Amino acid sequence: MKPIVFIDRTVPSEVETRIAEHCVVDKWEGASPIPRELLLEKLANANGLLTAGSKVDAELLTHAPHLKAVSSISVGYNHFDLDAMKQRGVIGTHTPHVLNNTVADLAFALILGTARRVAELDRYVKEGKWKSGVGSSLFGQDVHHAKLGIIGMGRIGEAVARRARFGFEMEVSYFNRSRKPEAESLLGVRYQELNELLKDSDFVVMLAPLTPETTRLIGRDQFQLMKPSSIFINISRGQTVDEEALVEVLQSGAISAAGLDVFDNEPIPADHPFLKMDNVLTLPHIGSATTATRFDMAMLAAQNLVNALTGQSPANIVAELQ
Ligand code: NAP
Question: How much is the pLDDT for 140?
Fold first, then answer.
């Protein structure tokens, strides 16, 4: 008998076809996210789930007694309750590598966008305020040859470092729990303790995964170490940062700007202070969102799921569940 798979969001037809070659497929076709209750109902008979952010916790697993594998179309897997999945022996997979360059490109969109005030000055032009040459109040800061600090120098961090070193001739340092001597010599980057990195950098890019250890890793004390001219970029997960503290340091001028692809609550509430601040560039969590990369991620996730359900070991089981 073929395994039963539930797909909880819209995916390209090729992705569904790949799964349907080996499995019976049921799917959510609504334009908005599937309501939690319906998802739980749909999982009553499912052996596999293809998702990208649905919380896979003890509650979900209780409603899914036949579930063997969950495949996420994402590299981050903070929506997996790893203990609950381990206890039930449910395989969890993700989609590393295929999105590295796309997410690194977006990190640079945020770096350049904040440093050169791109969105703010686009509004300035469109609102008819461009009457003569711009004065120094609208000047930005240089990215080339500046100091970049990367928190979480993994697959994507290295792609950001490569762009920074060889494209913009930046000085790059990084903070991880462990050093990466190979990256240090290949990319010409140096290791710094977190506080030193925060003090020295002109741009700080947060790229560590969201874990209990990284939750609110960057708060008031850490922001206060940064230079008043420095810019903070978050492309990992909103909860790695204390947002209230970030609002405060941006308003007080303790740092100069922020470029944010991720937020504590997504979508960001309409009354959030960030939305009224010219020195904050906001994006709707689009790090990997190009047509080609989202297709590759979904295909890889489909293959991971098929492998897990047909007795072949998937290549991308998340580290904690291996
Ligand atoms: P990765 O290869 O696992 O790299 C993560 C790095 O973070 C590792 O080098 C790790 O090094 C470091 N790290 C882990 N825990 C840490 C801690 N407590 N303190 C300091 N460093 C820590 O992951 P990746 O593929 O580069 O992806 C990174 C993250 O980017 C994902 O988890 C996801 O949240 C985010 N992301 C966001 C988007 C978006 O759309 N905005 C898209 C893709 C990914 P050590 O183990 O040595 O500490």
Answer: 98
**Is residue 176 within 8 Å of 156, Cβ to Cβ?**
no
Instruction: Please check whether residue 204 is in contact with residue 182, taking contact to mean a CB–CB distance below 8 angstroms.
Output: no
The identity of residue 67, as a single letter, is L
CA of 209 to the centre of ligand 1 (A): 4
Instruction: Decide if 182 is catalytic.
Output: no
Task: Average pLDDT across each block of 10 residues of the chain; the chain has 322 residues. List them in order.
Answer: 97 98 97 96 98 97 98 98 98 98 98 98 97 95 98 98 98 98 98 98 98 98 98 98 98 98 98 98 98 98 98 94 96
**C-alpha span between 231 and 228 (Å, rounded):** 9
Ligand 1: residues within 6 Å at CB? Answer: 75-76, 96, 99, 103, 152-157, 175-178, 207-211, 213-214, 235-237, 261-262, 285, 287-288
- In the chain the domains, ranked by start, together with CATH numbers, are 4-98+291-321 (3.40.50.720), 100-282 (3.40.50.720)
Do the Cβ atoms of 99 and 244 come closer than 8 Å?
Answer: no
Closest CA to 301 of 2, 103, 107, 12: 12
| Residues in the chain, overall count | 322
And the tokens for 211? 């874990």
- Predicted local confidence at residue 135, as pLDDT: 94
Among 14, 41, 169, 266, the one annotated catalytic = 266
Ligand 1 center to residue 101 CA distance, Å? 14
122, burial (CB in 10 Å: exposed 0-12, middle 13-18, buried 19+): exposed
- CA dist., res. 107 & res. 231, Å (int): 12
Q: How far is the CA of 134 from the centre of ligand 1 (A)?
A: 39
| pTM metric for this prediction | 0.97
Phi-psi category of residue 221: left, alpha or beta, with phi > 0 → left and psi -120 to 50 → alpha = alpha
